[in-house]
Amino acid sequence: MTQSEKPSSESHSQSSLQNIWQAITRAVLVPVLAVFTALIINAIIIRVSGGDPILAYLGLWEGAFGSPKAISETLVWSTPYIFAGLSVALAFKGGLFNIGAEGQLSFGALISAWIGFALPKLLGTSLPWILHLPLALFGGIFAGALWGAIPGWLKARTGGHEVINTIMMNYIAVLLTSFLLNGPLKDPNPFNVIARTPEIAESARLTPLIEGFRVHWGIVIALLIAFAVWWFLWKTTLGFEIRTVGANPDAAKYAGISVSRIIVLTMSLAGGLAGMAGAIEVIALNHRQELGFSVGYGFDAIAIALLGRSHPFGVVLAAILFGAMRSGATRMQFLTQIPVDIISVVQALILLLVAAEEIVRFIYRIKAPKETVVLTRGWGG
Amino acid sequence: MKKNLFTLLSALAIVSLALAACATPAPVAPTAMPAKAFRIGLVTDVGKVDDKSFNQSAWEGAQCGAKETGGTTKYIETTDPKDYDKNIAQFGDEGYDVIVTVGFALGEATIKNAAKYTKAKFIGVDQFQEKPVAGVGGLIFPEDEAGFQAGVVAAMMSKTGQIGAVLGTDVVPPVWRFGEGYRAGAVWAKKDTKVNIIYHNDVGFDKTFTDPEWGKTTALSMMDKGADVIFGAGGKTGNGALLGVAQSKKGFAIGVDTDQYLTVPEAKEVLLTSAMKLIVPGTCDLIKAVKAGSFKDGNVVGKVGLAPFHDTESKVTAETKAKLDEAQKGLAAGTLKTNVAPAKP
Predict the structure, then answer these.
(1) Which residues of chain B lie closer than 8 angstroms to A291, CB-CB?
(2) Residues ≥6 apart with Cβ < 8 Å to A127
(3) In this predicted structure, what is the pLDDT of residue A5?
(4) Checking DSSP bridges between strand B304-306 and strand B271-277, what pairing results, if any?
(5) Of A381 and B86, which is predicted with more confidence?
(6) Which CATH number fits domain A33-44+53-364: 1.10.3470, 1.10.10, 3.40.50, 2.40.160?
(7) Nearest-angstrom CA–CA distance, B237 and A151
(8) CA A44 to CA A39: how far, in whole Å?
(9) What residues of B are in contact with residue A361 (Cβ under 8 Å)?
(10) Which stretches of chain A score pLDDT less than 50?
């Protein structure tokens, strides 16, 4: 800003900047304090159980950000967390609780892997990567979207609660995957005894971002998608409709929005995002689907969405935090020999403090904001 | 409001500083170690070093190896299969002399990292080597023979003629070989024994060995159907089966890998014996071999055996002991074969 500009406009823009700053502070204050408090409580737990909390946190930091390799590993962990977190957050915006990210992710990964290894054989020819890679990616997204759309449709059509139905869909996805990986889709290599698919073709693989590190283009895609989700929710009509249905379905209906259509759409998009998490893990990292490859990304994603306040940018930050903790845990254990389960304790404490933010507000004497955030409507809503 | 907040934050900061101040120095600070020390790292499969079973035995073996060679040892517990590489690299990058990787599932990661960290010797517990790989020793066990002996005892001790086995997943060859050996032993001892074997195949690798609830309910339902001796094999899942038998108090249980009389004391009243893989001495001996320079690439066959009967000693019949003796002698002499394939066909 130059001197020649009118002072009035300067003060105006300053105050609006101030407003934005205040809004951001208000939004991140509770989550940041929740993380901080959880780490303090956890330090006490480590200390009481005979460990050294300072060395533990030092190890956690070194293991997560201490070297280029550590940062790479953190981003590897964060990538599926971002997608899955966005999935849950998007559903929250539409007033829906997507507990099914785990199943959508696993089904997406399965289809993606199938397209990756079986399609060239089926067609009897190798595909160029420009065709094969997007096919594998979008196959996974589509599969996840389908897995999300079913409970969405059930909710819109019959009122069946999405919490129950997404949990059911998780079981179906996990058991179906287990069956297929132990049977029809199992790697036929005679030396293979593990329940997993063959490796996907080279043409379906996403390359590492930097040679020699495991971090891959998935993280870039994840960040772009996070931006896209933000843009979609706040800058498009459809996004507005989703948020309106989430905030007040009766008002949305009165305003002429087809609530059932939006519910199905929201769940499909949420499922697609989770499916993308699975697909990217397959095409960029594991290059195959293996039983038990996901250790609860879909469930951690709920914590991530809550910590990120269901905002795409908040989700990215929360996902990097969770990724860093998971990734740094190895170094932490190497240095201190305390159980890695302590990381789950931190995550649980964060979740508890974010979900029951009154505790945080009470501890730090923060006044509650005027408007309250509606996450999901209750039963039968 | 602001003031309160800062007071609290600084109070917490002081508390954490106080915690740091009273924190004793870490028992094994990495920097404090002389560069020449013989260092042994251990990476578990998805599981814990205190699982009272497989990982624990390997960890005890590593500790034994450290003691015998005057070295130090550390472990890393794996939480996600995609971290195998990273966890091994943690030791590789630090220049460890021996890296013990526990479990069949780490086989590929072990071979891959052996090529990268040529300075270290790798001990792959339960990792059968198709062909010798430079720097990798696969510690394997004739699980079928241990299972066979357990099957003999089970069949001889069963009053109903029905016995069961609650196992991890049959995609892991050692588990499958335990199960099939058990079946073969039971049928060899008493031809018309009914053997019911159930694997926890319906879940992923992250769950199949860590599901005691499933193990317990499965064992209980087998006993409801008439089985009176249950063999539990597969980490915590198998331990759950032992607990199930202990709860019903109706029959006997047989443990696996280690002497589970010691590791699952809740089941000691019903525990006949355990089909043991002598992982502790196996791992320990290999570590000593590395130190002595006599380490060889390829497979090393460890020993198996049955644990003592302990509390159930008085209930074990003379015929059972005689039959078991016959089996053990036959297996040792090679006149008795279990006819179990190396892996599920």
Answers:
(1) 204-205
(2) A119, A120, A135, A201, A203, A204
(3) 46
(4) antiparallel
(5) B86
(6) 1.10.3470
(7) 33
(8) 9
(9) none
(10) 1-8, 378-381
Cβ atoms of A115 and A279 closer than 8 Å = no
List the structure tokens of A32. Answer: 């940041």
Residues from chain B contacting residue A326 (CB–CB below 8 Å) = 79-80
Domain map (residue ranges) of chain B: 32-140, 143-276+309-333
Q: Is A368 on the interface with B (CB under 8 A)?
A: no
Note the pLDDT of residue A193. 65
Overall CATH class of domain B143-276+309-333: alpha beta
Give Cα A188 to chain centroid, integer Å: 33
* Residue A380: per-residue pLDDT: 40
8 Å CB contact between B78 and B84 = yes
CB distance A193–B23 less than 8 Å?
Answer: no
Q: What is the pLDDT of residue A189?
A: 75
As given in the structure block, the two tokens for residue A33 are: 């304090």
B171: confidence class by pLDDT, cuts 50, 70, 90 = confident
Of A43, A291, A363, the CB nearest to B204: A291
Which residue type is seen at A203?
Answer: S
CB contact under 8 A, B206 and A47: no
The length of chain B is 345
**Cβ-nearest to A191 among B26, B91, B130:** B130
Average pLDDT over residues B39-44: 94
The minimum CA-CA distance between B269 and chain A, rounded to whole Å, is 31
Asked whether the domain spanning B143-276+309-333 has the same topology as the one spanning B32-140, the reply is yes
Determine how β-strand B121-125 pairs with β-strand B136-140.
Answer: parallel
A·B CB contacts under 8 A = 111
pLDDT at residue B176 greater than cutoff 60: yes
Strand partners, B194: B162
B 277-316 residues with CB < 8 A to A: none
φ and ψ of A98, to 5 deg: -90, 95
Q: What is the pLDDT of residue B23?
A: 46
How many residues belong to chain A?
A: 381
Q: Does residue A192 contact residue B128 with C-beta atoms inside 8 Å? A: no
Identify the residue among B78, B86, B116 best suited for mutation to test binding to A, counting A beta carbons within 10 A and taking the highest. Answer: B86
CATH of B32-140, one of 1.10.10.60, 3.40.50.720, 3.40.50.2300, 3.40.50.300: 3.40.50.2300
Rounded CA separation A286/B344 (Å): 25
**A330/B76 touch (CB, cutoff 8 Å), yes or no:** yes
> What residues in A contact B48, CB-CB < 8 Å?
339
The minimal CB distance from B76 to the residues A52, A194, A334 is found for A334
pTM above 0.90?
no
Looking at the predicted structure, is the pLDDT value of residue B28 above 60? Answer: no
pLDDT reported for residue B32: 44
CB contact under 8 A, B86 and A330: yes
Candidates B56, B90, B205, B214: best to mutate against A (most CBs of A within 10 A) is B205
Cα-Cα end-to-end distance for chain A: 50
Of A43, A52, A73, the CB nearest to B26: A52
Residue B25 has pLDDT above 70, yes or no: no
Contact B20, B14 (CB under 8 A): no
- Predicted local distance difference test score (pLDDT) of residue A341: 84
pLDDT over 60 at B12, yes or no: no
In this prediction, residue A4 carries a pLDDT of: 47
